[in-house]
Design a protein that fits this description.
With about 260 residues, this protein is mainly alpha-helical. It has 13 helices and 4 strands. The longest helix has 21 residues.
């Protein structure tokens, strides 16, 4: 998705797309051992966040995988309770955000709206969203912002008002939690990944201009090998940080990949 958003064509990613988004045995394991694909835990339980990410990526890349997408969507629906909450114990904001994006991008707007309402319960008083712990997470808040903006026009006027207030509070949390008004830290070290997700969230919720300080900071982290350097990558590009930052340094968010 990051590559697609930054301009790489479908054809140039065909091998990876076929493997990750169109091969049943890889995704769900249905053609080999039941439920052994990457969407399932070692206990053969569907991981709703992974399912949402699969659906989002499939939609963003326009993958012709309708039968597989339908089966994943059906399985995901069984994980959503009547109030929109996810039945997976310990599900965090990242799970909810990907589920919202996955549902919305695949035409399940009513269900996406329902899950977004339940997701608001994961917002702390400081405006940030919880990840898998009680404390607010920069990464989770940045991703959740993108999900809430995607569904901002769904539901009743009361629902939209509550969601808009949550978005405003989340943006304020990010803007008051940054360092030097241009990046974020965790455990005393610069956090490239969190800065990228925050930049994408602010870009989606506010504007590219508001996200520009973070975008410019991220670009300065690009090393001589083309990868973004992190405190733990020993002076070379970190693959994970680069993968999560590619859209941000291109001044885009995940929502841009879905347009």
């Amino acid at each position: 998705m990051q590559r697609k958003g930054a301009g790489l064509s479908f054809a140039k990613q065909l091998r990876q797309i076929r493997y990750l988004l169109a091969t049943t045995s890889v995704v769900t394991g249905l053609s080999t051992k039941p439920k052994s694909g990457y969407l399932y835990s070692s206990e053969q339980q569907l991981l709703p966040g992974r399912a949402g990410l699969f659906l989002t990526a499939s939609a963003a890349l326009r993958v012709p995988n309708a039968p597989l997408r339908t089966s994943v969507l059906s399985a995901l629906k069984t994980m959503i309770m009547k109030d929109g909450s996810l039945s997976l114990a310990g599900a965090g904001s990242i799970d909810y955000a990907w589920v919202i994006l996955g549902l919305h991008s695949n035409g399940q707007t009513s269900l996406a709206n329902l899950v977004s309402v339940a997701a608001l319960k994961l917002q702390n008083q400081d405006g940030g969203f919880k990840s898998f712990e009680q404390l607010s997470s920069i990464d989770a808040t940045g991703l959740m912002l993108q999900a809430l903006v995607a569904v901002q026009k769904l539901g009743t006027s009361t629902t939209m008002a509550k969601r808009n207030l949550a978005v405003t509070s989340a943006v304020a949390f990010l803007q008051t939690s940054d360092v030097n008004d241009n990046h974020f830290q965790s455990s005393g070290s610069v956090d490239v990944n969190a800065t990228a997700y925050a930049a994408m969230g602010i870009k989606a919720a506010v504007s590219t201009k508001a996200a520009t300080p973070y975008i410019l900071w991220l670009r300065k982290q690009v090393g001589s090998d083309g990868g973004l350097v992190t405190p733990w990558s020993n002076g070379v590009g970190d693959v994970f940080a680069t993968a999560q930052s590619y859209l941000a340094i291109s001044s885009k968010s995940y929502l841009d990949t879905l347009k």
